[in-house]
Amino acid sequence: MTRLPAALLALATLAVAAPASAHCLDQENFAIIVHGGTSSGKAYPERLGFIENMLAKRRAELMAGDRAIDIVERAIVEMEDSGLFNAGRAAITNSEGFVELDASIMDGRTLDAGAVASQLTLKNPIRAARLVMDGTRHVMMVGDRGEAAVISLGAETVEPGEYFLKAKPKEHPKEHGTVGAAVLDRCGDLAAGTSTGGYDSKIPGRVGDSPIIGAGSYAKNGVMAASSTGHGEYFIRHTALRTIAARMEYGGAALDTAARKTLREMRAAGRDASDGGTDGRGGVIAVDAEGNFSFAHSYAGMIHGMTDHGTKPRASQLGSKVE
Ligand code: ASP
What we know:
Elements: H1 6-16, E1 31-38, H2 45-63, H3 68-82, E2 101-107, E3 112-119, H4 125-135, E4 140-142, H5 143-152, H6 160-163, E5 179-184, E6 190-196, E7 217-220, E8 224-230, H7 232-237, H8 240-251, H9 255-272, E9 282-288, E10 293-294, E11 302-308, E12 311-318
Bound molecules: aspartic acid.
């Protein structure tokens, strides 16, 4: 095999993979879809207004050529900081009354990914996940040692007692306001991310699907980008997002068909389970390589918002179940 001189090799690599921060205006199509969790039985008008405003900013940035991975991070940072969702500032507590935060991010261009789990003092877990992706050769950092590592990479911390808005588990018995974003940019690149305080009344130390690649977040160029919300244990068991991608890649399924089928299977498994049949439910927001959306859900009340090159930002709380 002929060996390329190092300088030439570097040039060849650059030509294949432009730096993620570079702007890109290759195509007209772009799209972003986000969720603010699945909140059964309660209306959250303030979350919808917030999402529409946040999406208007992301739309302008995407139009200007900003990259999918950066848009995902910015969207989720704003949602974490808003104090409106079960992520970052307003994260719910575990059964012992303190917050443990999980997040993940994935770049569909390279399949690079970063995640943090069981974090106690991080201001923006999604930013920490990005630091893991960009600054280490690992995918996931957990617990206090993981927290020390991401702090050394530049993650911002807070005083838990002063920063987080909610402290009593009983105040939010059915709160599922996890946040997530899936983006197609004008390069045709896909990215996704998710951030959460986790499932209500979780046992300290429990980690859900949100920081798990293929369950909570997944992105692969040419296929789809997605984020999930709902009963995390089922998303993990069914590797839900990777299953959706596989149905598209190997079975030729359309995004929404693949997402609905996967959620139906999870719901059926939940109905059969010994825990009373109320589980295995959740929702997925996703966008494919052409900019088609899915917001398949098996819970009433999923909060979602979207915008693309031809559609103004709009957010809604989905009333009907897809089962
Ligand atoms: N999926 C999250 C978890 O299980 C919770 C949620 O989305 O509401 O941790």
